[in-house]
Amino acid sequence: MIDFRGKVVPLVFLKDTFQIPQTENQEDDDLLSVVIIKKGEKMAGLVVDAFIGQQEIVLKSLGDYLTDVFAISGATILGNGHVALIIDSNALIK
């Protein structure tokens, strides 16, 4: 939990949510990068590894085969050709 503008906001660790194993070169830092999201009156802080930047994207559906993937709403192809999954932030707020 963190204090954000006088409100207590729960933290959601995306590594734990998506079950991403920790690599050897990753260290536990005292400082965390957090993205604050809001759904109605509820708020949460998403703990991320790093901020890459901001881009305009075209969201593509994952298709009929991947309809039940938790908290992923689609994907996009970045300018460098890499595929990036899009997180459904509403699914992460309880």
UniProtKB/TrEMBL annotation:
Reactions catalysed, as given in the entry: ATP + protein L-histidine = ADP + protein N-phospho-L-histidine
Pfam hit, one: CheW
InterPro entries from the UniProt entry: Bact_Chemotaxis_CheA, CheW-like_dom_sf, CheW-lke_dom
Enzyme Commission number(s): 2.7.13.3
EC main group: transferase
Residue span, CheW-like domain: 1-94
Superkingdom of origin: Bacteria
UniProt xrefs under PANTHER family: CHEMOTAXIS PROTEIN CHEA (PTHR43395:SF1), SENSOR HISTIDINE KINASE CHEA (PTHR43395)
Official protein name in the record: histidine kinase
